[in-house]
Amino acid sequence: VVLFLSGDSHRRPKASGERLLSTADIIIVESPPEGMGEPKGKPTCTVLSGSPDITTLTGFITMVAERKEIEAMLREKAVNGKIGCKDAREIAETMGVPYKEVGAAANLLSIKIMNCELGCF
Q1: What is the pTM of this model?
Q2: How far apart are CA 117 and CA 121, in angstroms?
Q3: In whole angstroms, what is the distance from residue 12 CA to residue 72 CA?
């Protein structure tokens, strides 16, 4: 999990800052510039504005770590970009997350869930 803290959010960051932005999972800016959303190529990055309290920040860090663990499990079990419904459901049950969350992670990774048994994905 990489946190990227930005001071003057109205100025464009240096090249080294741009590289950090492209790897960040959570970006905290005082006030996001107009139109700032997820960094290019990072559809799961979270942008927080202001000064989040420790509880909020801890929640986001936990969420990102959980998502990365789900992604790692999907990559491990996928064969040729595909995973069986049973394996996807096992990941969700092991992680204690809704099936929908595993399905969303699989979509982001372009992993197709095959032989869906219950219509969960």
Answers
A1: 0.68
A2: 9
A3: 33
